[in-house]
Amino acid sequence: xxxxxxxxxxxxxxxxxxxxxxxxxxxxxxxxxxxxxxxxxxxxxxxxxxxxxxxxxxxxxxxxxxxxxxxxxxxxxxxxxxxxxxxxxxxxxxxxxxxxxxxxxxxxxxxxxxxxxxxxxxxxxxxxxxxxxxxxxxxxxxxxxxxxxxxxxxxxxxxxxxxxxxxxxxxxxxxxxxxxxxxxxxxxxxxxxxxx
Length: 196
Ligand SMILES: [Zn+2]
Prior knowledge:
By secondary structure, this protein is of the alpha+beta class.
């Protein structure tokens, strides 16, 4: 197992739709092990394979008291409830923004051995499932923000040390100071260090 560099905003792989996994051999197991180790090194809540440059539909997560991996994930939204809270991304280090997501989702997929899995999640686990599945479709959380918040987040990205330097992969995204982007009436919200 090894920690691998995380691709940062600006790397085209983050805008790529990953392919369904069809080979459940040892290479998939090694990929998942590397993803766990890399997520843990950065204290992430989740990590998608595209974030380490691998175009396969796999993500790992560790949040809300749950830890796991899902291969070929597909989720459906349950009900109309939404949740709004701080969200971040290991591929966009140092930026946290208020993001609205479905409150409850049901996810299906398989594990590394191809065994089907299916569960319903809420709160941060539901948020992670949506965030990571988006990654596998080449979608970043910036695209899920309200327009005014997105503007602020994009400004923070442009002003970030790593983006200004043209850096597109990092061994230590946690090294960057956090900028919290939110609507003025949310000023009292406390940003947490949640990054996926
Ligand atoms: Zn992310």
